[in-house]
Design goal:
The complex is a heterodimer of chains A (329) and B (285). In chain A, helix 3 packs parallel to helix 4. Chain A is built from eleven helices and 14 strands. Chain A is of the alpha/beta class and 329 residues long. In chain B, helix 3 (41-51) runs parallel beside helix 4 (75-85), helix 3 crosses helix 9 and helix 5 runs parallel beside helix 6. Chain B is α/β, with parallel strands linked by helices and 285 residues long. In chain B, strand 2, helix 6 (157-168) and strand 3 form a beta-alpha-beta unit. In chain B, the strands form two sheets. Chain B has a five-stranded parallel beta sheet, sandwiched between helices. Chain B has a two-stranded antiparallel sheet with strand order 4-5. Chain B has helices spanning 5-29, 35-39, 41-51, 75-85, 125-138, 157-168, 189-192, 198-204, 217-228, 263-275, and strands at 66-69, 145-150, 174-180, 183-184, 187-188, 208-213, 235-240. The chains are: A alpha/beta (329), B alpha/beta (285). Chains A and B meet through helix 3 and helix 4 of A and helix 5 and helix 6 of B.
Chain lengths: 329, 285
């Protein structure tokens, strides 16, 4: 059932769970990181309010640098700061950073081993009305393929705050992915969170499938697990917030027990979390797998919940995927 | 630091020595860029042997001035200057571009002492220099940051984003030196993508603009002093140079931008350098 070690929010499965955007967790975490270490600096490319960099900019004006609408400039300026002993956090929408400035991140941050933290906001199709130009659905893949880069996708606002603060403490380039919409707060202050360590959120006895998810969509995975339990299909749900480096041991142990895997992410099914898990399983434990995510298409304008439905990332879609993978078990 | 005649002469000789080593290094490597490294020998000599506050025995000294090479493809001359200044053995220059070498085809931070950042992809050096200048200011350090760029890389948007940023944040501890040699891989800059009026562009962005003969070490040293004394804006030193300088058959020819001399060409190049293009007799003849 609900894994007691995860210490989830008691209202996680309620009809009206607590709602908060992961970008708010970033804003809070950034201020806390700034309080803890004077070398933390923040940069933004004309999106200070919506990336929630504002709180830091107000509290530490001397450590905040406005770059204007210039994501390539922002990444490379941060690279210089990161080489010089600072811990820069750069924020924009993920389609622009790490979208537009991919090569700058590759050369001057990743290959350079500069201690820069890249915050990609408004990720996924749940950005909604802004439409496909602003819906990053490729960023996990494009960041994951870079040597030296960590990739972290927090599932809710609390985890987002913890991830931001931890990213400031570990050495090296990190990509952190955040969403615009208010989404269910699944975890609590007491929930364990360590970069690189996947957490079991739900474990039905005799689980026949393992759902591995990251980001706010994990809430749909939890609801699907409950639904499946009602239907007599026991499954487990793993919060794989760190897509790179993968917690291989936890994933392989659970996958072996369950015998089949479904991945859930608000991202293209190619190259993201699903791709990473497929690489791992193909190498060590080839078992049937299904992928929930964008199926090689762009998004469009619309209300977030409707978009999740239309593009096959809703609770019934996950239930269906589990049943499908079980037939191949 | 004042530059008396004796030292100036010494630096000029050092620049010629650096050119010879660049030719030897390139012919050994079998690939790499010739024109830019030869054209900037005086600039690198002036920085590593006179202008920079640095210590080759302590490349990580926190108070050092930084030299950021933005156009990483001219690294053969930076490598020679670093070796001659004592960062690593001159013998190691022979390993340029070879498997396992610290002298990567384009500079990589962490591989070689003295290399402040990774470069090669163009237009990203000034922004990194801005980041370093900001960090120095935050830490209350007096270090200065110099960024050497090519003229061709001014076609990159990333560079101009940093030009705006440096002015907006008044990074007067950051100075750009442009190797204005008028060539790039595909031809002459004014044919490939015109950059003129070049100085006016920087002035329009609010920068302090200085123009010098890039082969005149005294002019460069003076310009760096003037840049340091300018508080209200960052400075750019446009250094007019001759690509391939010192080797008659390379000078001014864009075809030498991206290739090394063959063994035969290297012999002629070295003879040119040692005889000042035949003006003096060489003991090597």
């Amino acid at each position: 059932m609900i894994a007691s070690k995860a210490k989830l929010n008691k209202k996680a499965f309620a009809d009206a769970p607590d709602m908060k955007a992961t970008r708010d967790g970033y804003g809070e975490g950034l201020v806390r990181a700034g309080e803890e270490n004077k070398n933390v600096v923040a940069l933004c490319a004309d999106l200070t309010e919506s990336t929630r960099t504002e709180g830091f900019a107000k509290k530490f004006p001397e450590r905040f640098f406005e770059c204007g609408v210039a994501e390539q400039g922002m990444a490379t300026i941060a690279a210089g700061l990161g080489i010089s002993g600072k811990i820069p956090f750069i924020a924009s929408y993920a389609t622009f950073s790490p979208g537009r400035n991919w090569e700058q991140i590759r050369t001057t941050i990743a290959y350079n081993d500069s201690n820069v933290k890249i915050a990609g906001h408004h990720a996924g199709i749940s950005v909604g009305p802004d439409g496909a130009t602003h819906q990053a659905i490729e960023d996990i893949a494009t960041m994951r393929v870079m040597a030296n880069m960590r990739v972290i996708v927090p599932c809710d606002a609390i985890e987002a705050r913890k991830a931001t603060m931890q990213a400031a403490k570990i050495w090296g380039p990190c990509y952190l992915r955040f969403s615009r919409e208010k989404t269910a707060v699944m975890t609590s202050e007491e929930s364990p969170f360590t970069i690189g360590k996947a957490e079991i959120f739900f474990q039905a006895p005799g689980s026949r499938a393992l759902i591995i998810g990251c980001g706010p969509l994990l809430h749909n995975a939890l609801l699907a697990a409950l639904e499946l339990k009602k239907e007599g299909v026991p499954v487990s749900v793993l919060n794989c917030h760190t897509v790179k480096p993968l917690d291989e041991k936890t994933i392989l142990t659970l996958a072996k027990k369950c015998g089949a895997v479904v991945t859930v992410e608000e991202h293209q099914v190619m190259g993201g979390l699903g791709g990473a898990i497929a690489e791992l399983l193909a190498t060590h434990l080839p078992i049937p797998m299904e992928f929930i995510g964008m199926q090689d298409t762009f998004g469009e304008s619309g209300p977030p919940a409707e978009l999740w439905k239309k593009y096959g990332m809703d609770v019934p879609d996950i239930v269906k995927a589990v049943k499908k993978v079980l037939r191949r078990r | 630091m004042s530059l008396h005649e004796g030292k100036l002469k010494h630096l000029e000789e050092q620049a010629m020595k650096i050119r010879e080593l660049v030719i030897e290094e390139l012919v050994e490597a079998g690939s790499g860029h010739s024109a830019g490294p030869l054209g900037t020998a005086e600039i690198f000599t002036a920085f590593y042997f006179h202008i920079l506050h640095h210590d080759p025995k302590r490349p990580d000294w926190a108070e050092r001035d930084r030299l950021v090479l933005s156009n990483g493809h001219i690294c053969p001359v930076q490598y020679v200057a670093l070796a001659c200044a004592g960062y690593f053995p001159v013998d190691e220059l022979k390993t340029l571009r070879k498997l396992g070498s610290r002298l990567q085809g384009h500079p990589h931070r962490g591989s070689l002492p003295g290399v402040e950042t990774t470069s090669g992809p163009l237009g990203s050096g000034l922004a990194q220099a801005c980041g370093m200048a900001l960090a120095a200011r935050l830490d209350g350090k007096k270090s200065r940051v110099f960024c050497i760029t090519s003229d061709g890389e001014h076609e990159e948007g990333n560079h101009w984003e940093a030009v705006m940023f440096a002015k907006r944040h008044r990074l007067n501890n950051c100075t750009v030196v442009v190797d204005r040699n008028n060539i790039q891989i595909d031809g002459n800059t004014e044919e490939v993508m015109p950059l003129e009026p070049f100085a006016e562009k920087y002035r329009a962005f609010g920068w302090n603009v200085l123009e010098i003969d890039g082969h005149n070490i005294r002019e460069l040293v003076d310009a760096c002093h003037e840049a340091e004394a300018t508080y209200e804006a960052p400075s750019v030193i446009i250094a007019h140079t001759i690509p391939g300088k010192g080797v008659s058959f390379m000078e001014g020819n864009y075809l030498w931008h991206g290739k090394p001399p063959t063994k035969e060409e290297a012999k002629r190049a070295l003879a040119d350098l040692r005889t000042l293009k035949g003006k003096i007799r060489s003991e090597h003849e």
